[in-house]
Design a protein that fits this description.
Length: about 525
């Protein structure tokens, strides 16, 4: 066989509209358990108990429980168990997690009006993902060929080189097709069989994959809350979400005659806004038992992403900039609307010694809305640019089949053997967001599929979190420590599987690898009440 340049066609559209892919969006939409050490130490089960600034984003009515003004600061360390520092990532990282202020004003004998401002890290992306396995009768090279066999790949055009040789280069005038950027790059390694006069492929023997995720989502919340006769507590929070995400990955396939390495670097930045409302009720006048209800709108994100990908056999190197049109589709804006969230919680105190909390939250991630930017306009009045968008219906249909409703359960307890000392414990369960049969479909007729620069995907299972903590108060100062252990198992696939309808020899079945993310967090909060 003689290696020639055969490549998938490039998307050419009338405007650089693009949306993201389901698995990439799911990373942005999910949240971690984070906040003050007291909140984390109790597993986050404080939505009905209140009087902790971290409830500002889960049940805003909890801020209405404050009777004094307060300022707090939280920071700590996060480390990933079992991970090896790889491709620039570190398994242990320092983290600035929370900074907030509550101003409490007495408006009546038993009524208060409170105002709060708070920052907290709602998502910590720091994680290293590694996987390796034998490939057998499969390879990303073979998958690229299979898509060509199905009609997704268009022939390249011939171009004469200065030395007189003829090679095939991308045909930038080819019509729109659904194909992945990485498939386009791998098209350079689809072979021409001189004997059979047809395109062929090479199977890989094994693969190795490493990706370092970095960054965070910072949430800035503004809250107004209060209570009516110390029986009904109401709260409203407006939140601004600031996204800073990036990753770098290397995927290596051991081919019969050479090693093929694919590198990918992606960055996502942008902002989103949401509104949360909550109420806490004491149904029995002389009982501390409380019931909390909360609702949160979708977070309306407008994001910008850029990526750089390359493929190399150790001799030649081809980059994503060689296959994208003049508008540079590796850089684009898109919108993402997360699901609505609904919560119910219970809280009870026994004297001043014991506090018990339980919370439940539901969000349907199958309704995640990936959206194209359809226009950008300048507003003279505000001296700013605004955008219009529409849903990527093809990708959203895929999301509905791939993601599902998520149930979050929280349990927590706090024991105070004396008025200055507190011990805390908690448990947190988050059901799987991914369907077991879900996969990243690189053949969707969607820009969101094409601009995805990676073919791998992981179907993560349920998340279990165990927490504990200790707090001490001296005069108006307080300090708290919390420890959180979280574990999530999943199934990794390097690419989607292809099954040929006519000949099983052409099947390209991707192996699955069991992976796990075990995280330890140590958190310190310092506070002052006045």
């Amino acid at each position: 066989m003689k290696k020639l340049f055969a490549i998938a066609a490039i998307v050419v559209a009338t405007m650089p509209a693009a949306a993201q892919e389901t698995y990439e969006n799911a990373k942005i939409a999910q949240e971690d358990l984070n906040g003050t050490a007291r909140y984390v130490g109790m597993g986050g089960a404080m939505e009905a108990l209140g009087a902790d600034i971290s409830t500002i984003s889960s049940n805003p009515a909890g801020i209405g429980m404050f009777r004094h003004s307060n300022v707090s600061l939280s920071m700590g360390l996060v480390t990933q168990e079992g991970a090896q520092n790889a491709v620039g990532g570190s398994k242990t990282n320092a983290s600035f997690d929370q900074l907030g202020f509550v101003y409490s004003y007495r408006s009546g004998k038993t009524s208060y009006v409170n105002v709060a401002l708070n920052y907290h890290k709602s998502r910590n992306f720091d994680m290293i993902l590694s996987a390796a396995n034998q490939l057998g009768n499969a390879s990303l090279n073979k998958l690229t060929w299979a898509k060509g066999n199905l009609g997704y790949v268009y022939e390249a055009k011939e171009e004469k080189q200065p030395d007189g040789s003829i090679i095939n280069v991308p045909n930038f005038n080819a019509p729109y097709i659904s194909c992945n950027q990485l498939d386009d790059l791998f098209g350079y390694y689809v072979n021409w069989d001189d004997k059979n006069k047809d395109w062929g492929y090479d199977n890989a023997e094994s693969f190795r994959f490493d990706r370092a995720h970095e960054g965070y989502i910072g949430e800035y919340d503004f809250n107004v809350s209060g209570n009516i006769k110390n029986r009904i507590y109401l709260g409203l929070t407006v939140g601004v979400h600031d996204v800073h995400y990036k990753h770098y990955s290397e995927y290596v396939e051991q081919m019969p005659l050479f090693t093929c390495t694919v590198g990918d670097r992606r960055e996502i930045t942008g902002q989103g806004i949401d509104v949360k409302a909550g109420v806490i009720l004491r149904p029995i006048e002389y009982s501390p038992f409380r019931i909390g209800l909360s609702i949160a709108t979708p977070t309306f994100y407008e994001l910008k992403t850029s990526n750089y990908s390359f493929i190399s056999d150790g001799y030649d190197r081809y980059t994503s900039t060689q296959i994208n049109d003049a508008r540079d589709r590796t850089n684009y804006k898109f919108r993402l609307y997360t699901p609505w969230k609904f919560g119910v919680s219970l809280g009870h105190t026994i004297g001043t010694q014991l506090a018990l909390g339980a919370s439940y939250e539901y969000a349907d991630y199958g309704t995640l809305d990936s959206r194209y930017i359809t226009g950008e306009y300048y507003d003279d009045y505000s001296d700013s640019y605004t955008t219009k968008s529409e849903s990527d219906r093809v990708m959203n249909d895929h999301t509905a089949k791939t993601l599902k409703g998520v149930h979050t359960f929280k349990l927590g307890a706090e024991l105070k053997p004396d008025r200055n000392m507190a011990f805390r414990i908690g448990y947190n369960y988050v059901s799987p967001v991914y369907q077991k049969e879900g996969f990243k479909d690189g053949t969707l007729n969607s820009d969101g599929s094409y601009v995805s620069s990676a073919t791998d995907y992981t179907n993560w299972n349920a998340t279990h979190r165990i927490t504990c903590g200790f707090g001490y108060t001296f005069d108006k100062f307080n300090a708290s420590l919390a420890y959180q252990y979280s574990t999530t198992k999943g199934t990794f696939s390097p690419f989607m599987s292809y099954y040929d309808a006519d000949d099983a020899a052409y099947d390209c079945v991707a192996p699955q690898v069991s992976v796990e993310n075990k995280r330890h967090q140590l958190l310190l909060t310092l506070g002052y009440t006045f």
